[in-house]
Amino acid sequence: QVQLVESGGGLVQPGGSLRLSCAASGSIFSINAMGWARQAPGIQRELVATITSGGSTKYADSVEGRFTISRDNAKNTVYLQMNSLKPEDTAVYYCNAETYGVYHWGQGTQVTVSS
Fold first, then answer.
1. Where are the beta strands (DSSP E) in the chain?
2. Alpha carbon of 47 to those of 34, 62, 75, 95: distances in Å?
3. pLDDT digit string (tens) for 61-77?
């Protein structure tokens, strides 16, 4: 099993920045890709960024150029740097980790972009 704990959410004004962190524990040796997804009320969960164990990254079109995902393997932590935030980025952000084709999820952290 893999446990994931997110932190770093909060309230930010449009145009601002936030950095989310996700610490992994448990069977971390089996983790392949890690990533972030988000879900706003009444909207399907959206995968926004992923990073493989080799460091390859992929982003949703909606966040490309504004969000950056990174990974510190020594700390078993993945980060999501979010810049130029927009009100439509408001959502609960979930960290995920993939092991042998199985996805594990954190509890989520709220990000609200509002003036």
1. 2-7, 10-12, 18-26, 34-39, 46-51, 57-59, 67-72, 77-82, 91-99, 102-105, 109-113
2. 11, 10, 23, 10
3. 999 999 999 999 888 89
Q: Are 4 and 108 in contact (CB under 8 A)?
A: no
- Residue 34: closest CA among 89, 75, 86, 83: 75
Name the nearest CA neighbour of 66 among 81, 45, 47. 81
What pLDDT, in 10s, does the model give residues 23-62?
998 887 888 899 999 999 999 999 999 999 889 999 999 9
Alpha carbon 18 to its chain's center: 11
Sign of the C-alpha dihedral, residues 44, 32, 95, 9? negative
